[in-house]
Give the backbone structure.
Amino acid sequence: MQWRISSRTRMARAGTAIAAIAAAAVILAGCSSTSTATSNSTSTSASTSDPALAPLIAAAKKEGSLLVYGSPGEPGLKAAVAGFSQKYGIKASYVRLVGGDLESRYSSEKQAGSPTADVLMLNLDSFADTAKQQGLITDPADLKIPGYPWGFPSKFLLSDYGTAVVGLQIRGITYNTNYVKPGEIKTWSDLLNPKWKGHIGVPDPTSAAVYVGHWYTVGQHQKGGAQKFLEGVHAQLAHNGVYASGVPASAAAGSGEVWIVPMNIASTTKTVSDQGAPLKFVVPSQTTTDQQVIFANSDPAHPNAAKLFIAYMMSKEGADTMATNNNETSPFDTGKLPKTLWNWAPSLADKEQSDVNLWLTGR
């Protein structure tokens, strides 16, 4: 396996959309303590048996509740929050949003002084730099949680950000088995096969910064470079084949409206296939991945519960619970990662957004 994920040096981000006011309605999904699907794995990192954590656990239980904003796939996010609730008897809930909506909502609430999430779990992009500079979030390393970072896998500790990669969403291709046979789509270049013309749908690349980074990076590794490849994919799109996010794009593939949805994730595919849609998900041997990181609100309503949830997500139990329920990859179990993961700097998403949107969607 060729491992190419790394952290990077902090860089100031000008012109970020962090201050943008969320203009669209958001989906609020509650998670009760009766939710199941937690892992029975024994933690090799943050451990509830560590006496140093006992005062934190007691203080968090006294606070009694927690709110998480997250962009990981819904099945895994729900299971992780439910697992935390069950483990500690703390009423935890979550709001699941795609990256751009999550960042805009949280930023707007903070700047307005409104109540908001205690903890953020989201895909690493330039938001982390800007939010820290504006005092909107706190790095886990600065929270003085007893024992941090415990025995967390060192290659997933991002020292530049003071946090950890608690989940990996490998980018791949969803397809409808009624129209695409197994093995017909194996690589990103297979998307350009003329037989798929008019049958491909894509999530709007402007809906989350990571889409821009993934598309540009994958394109740069194709023959002719990013512009040629993305314009080639654009020529293959169905009429009205650009969807608001991966969720409606996957639903469209499930219904046969489109046959193929590239740059998707396993959890979104699974949500639709679990409802009976004939969908499969394939990961090219060379691809990219989301790095799901975790931060605390700079002034959380439930500061001790926020610290405890971060410790839980940095344990093998918490990370494996989210990964297993999303059919994705835990930082504690990376044996099934693709041969090559292409890395890209978060700044790339800001720099290339206009070009990627134009090349891929024609807008």
Remarks:
- Residues 172-287+341-361 form a domain with the D-Maltodextrin-Binding Protein; domain 2 fold (CATH 3.40.190.10).
- Residues 1-44 have pLDDT under 50 and may be disordered.
